[in-house]
Design brief:
Elements lengths: L1 H31 L6 H6 L5 E7 L2 H4 L4 H6 L4 E3 L7 H13 L3 E8 L11 H4 L10 H7 L5 H6 L3 H5 L1 H4 L1 H8 L25 E2 L9 H12 L3 E6 L6 E2 L2 H9 L4 E2 L10 E3 L2 E2 L1 H15 L3
Parallel strand pairs: 1-2, 1-3, 3-5, 4-6, 5-7
Antiparallel strand pairs: 8-9
Helix pairs in contact: 5-12
């Protein structure tokens, strides 16, 4: 009886393992055919592109740099800023562009509040995981992260753990080629006015780091002859601890401080994010400063 039970248990475990392997392969194949759901698959499933300007960073890049305004100046541009993202993901996305032989003249990097941590943003980083067995760049970038072994070696594990990001619903939408708005406006995501927005912020306890991933981005740009323009972007008027931006410049004097380039809360959707009107004013400032010469 015991032998029969053990044999049955082993068969169930083997069957479960095989099902997980098949599901893993099936989900991954869908993502390998998808290139219009978000900025990560848009880069991963692409070949060499040419850009005069690539924009990287968090939502403070995604919502602040109006890519079509660069295009009006004759500059081939795309905003690859990712809301919720950290420099961990920005560095990896740039590595993928290099791996795919992109030609990039300038990178505008939003490097301000995101300098205060070196952690991955699970909600964004998880979207790289379908490709972890297909890309040495992605594999090595995640190699020192917690749960790398689980995500890499256990079939289908990553799709279960990160179901909201890459699970069944996202896989199904990718298979149907259901569009999103993430690639509209050349990657720029405009915000409107929010009458209930919180127009206060406190940066007192925030401390910028000598950031590993910012250093990676600098090294990648130098190695590939890319002009790196690192900037700090505006915040609303009612902010405590604005000396944070001075602390950033104490560590990295090359980062351009535009924290107060746009003044007036009418230009903000929330304290840390400008609305479309503010973003257009700010983008015009950046274009005039760096691209009108």
């Amino acid at each position: 009886m015991m032998k029969r039970f053990l044999f049955f248990t082993i068969k169930i475990l083997l069957l479960t393992f095989m099902v997980l392997v098949v599901l893993d392969i099936a989900y991954t194949q869908v993502y390998l055919q998808s290139s219009h759901r978000g900025k990560i698959d848009y880069v991963y499933n692409s070949k060499a592109r040419h850009y005069d300007v690539v924009i990287l960073g968090s939502s403070r890049a995604n919502n602040h740099f109006v890519a079509p305004l660069f295009e009006e100046k004759g500059l081939k541009t795309f905003n690859y800023g990712m809301s919720g993202g950290h420099l961990f993901e920005a560095s990896l996305l740039l590595k993928l562009m290099v791996e795919r032989h992109y030609t990039i003249k300038n990178v505008i990097l939003e490097a301000d509040l995101n300098l205060a941590n070196e952690k991955e943003s699970e909600s964004v980083a998880s979207k790289f995981l379908p490709y972890i067995h297909r890309s040495k760049v992605i594999e090595s970038h995640f190699a020192q992260q917690p749960h790398f072994w689980d995500n890499y070696y256990i079939p289908f594990y990553r799709y279960i753990v990160f179901d909201p990001q890459i699970g069944f619903r996202e896989m199904y939408d990718a298979a149907r080629e259901k569009p999103t708005k993430l690639l509209d406006h050349l990657g720029y995501y405009p915000l409107g006015k929010n009458p209930n927005a919180n127009m206060k912020n406190d940066l007192t306890n925030l401390k910028p780091l000598h950031n590993e991933y910012y250093e990676e981005i600098k090294q990648i740009c130098k190695a590939n002859n890319i002009n790196l323009i690192a900037v700090m972007t505006p915040m609303c008027s009612n902010v405590k601890g604005l000396d944070y931006f001075l602390k950033v410049n104490a560590i990295y004097p090359e980062i351009h401080n535009y924290e107060n380039a746009i003044e007036g809360d009418q230009y903000f959707s929330s304290c840390g994010h400008m609305n479309d009107t503010g973003a257009r004013k700010f983008t015009t400032v950046i274009i005039n400063e760096f691209f009108n010469k």
